[in-house]
Amino acid sequence: MIRINITKQLRLAHENTQLSIGTTIPSNTITAIYGPSGAGKTTLLKILAGLVQPEQGAVEVNGRIWLDTARRVCLPPQQRSIGFVFQEYALFPHMTVQQNLQFAAGKNGDKSYIDKLLHLVKMEAFIHAKPSQLSGGQQQRIALIRALVRKPQLLLLDEPLSALDDAMRHELRTELYHIQQQLQITTLLVSHDISEVYTLASNLIHLEHGKVVFQGEPQQLFGAASLSSTLQLTGEVLQVIPDGAIYTVEVLTGKNIIRVTAGEHDIAKLQTGDKVCLFVKAYTIALKKMNG
Ligand SMILES: Nc1ncnc2c1ncn2[C@@H]1O[C@H](COP(=O)(O)OP(=O)(O)OP(=O)(O)O)[C@@H](O)[C@H]1O
Predict the structure, then answer these.
(1) The ABC transporter domain covers which part of the protein (predicted)?
(2) What's the first-to-final CA gap in the chain, in angstroms?
């Protein structure tokens, strides 16, 4: 369990906004931090990592105080048990994959755990490669397991898949899901991508202007019940494809095939040939079956 209660003044181009967050994050799950650009998502991760100081507040992780401004406690980043992955891969270019991982693990690193992680992301064959010899997706796989080699209590992911092309993003998203399921590590994932949030997260924090405007299951925010129908299209379901914990529905609308991410409740009783309504909702497309 992570308890966060912090305030920090954000420097915005035209106005001053306060990041003011009081929340509790469950252990062993993925929590998505979602919201528009400038909402404070990255700053929140940096505060948890100890890279940015809030003016006031406290952070408690699994019963241990990492930050308490009232008691002048502020653990430096190296004393916080975290793994951090950014959008860019940030591997050491002069080191091989193995050297990058061993360096991150430290002198007393667990070699068999490194091997286990390499196996999880199917990268055993690349241990002697330099980052420049790897694709973007392969580099990000290594960046991900590098963040895990010290068995951190908290994994912080800041749009880790956004630099990848669609196919690679999709593949890595599935791997990330399986890694988290296997290791049960408490993970905070900053993402703009609703399909990512839907697929990966069981808990969602929606930030706007530095404040939590929603916390709960992603389906509650993006589900059909809360759709606002600013734009609607009708279409015909071509197929419903299971995709990890969620579904991708292919819908033919005019001459276009649109892929829509949907939850269990959205696809209930949905079959090929059904007529559906597509809505733009919270920056993405959602669907609802027509006539029941
Ligand atoms: N250390 C800091 N101190 C004060 N303000 C900061 C600090 N770092 C960033 N900011 C400001 O806080 C605002 C929010 O930045 P942040 O990077 O947290 O947003 P974000 O929600 O992650 O946005 P994006 O999705 O574009 O990455 C920005 O306007 C930024 O200028």
Answers:
(1) 1-234
(2) 40
Please state the ipTM of this predicted complex: 0.94
User: CA-based angle 37:42:47, to the nearest 5?
Assistant: 145
Q: What is the pLDDT of residue 223?
A: 67
Where does a domain end: 161, 190, 221? 221
| Ligand 1 close to Cβ of residue 109 (< 6 A) | no
Q: Each residue of 124-165: pLDDT tens digit?
A: 999 999 999 999 889 999 999 999 999 999 999 999 988 888
Sequence-distant (6+) residues with CB within 8 A of 208 are 35, 36, 39
Among protein residues, the one with the nearest Cα to ligand 1's atom 26 is 37
Domain count, the chain: 2
Same domain, 158 and 272: no
Predicted model pTM = 0.78
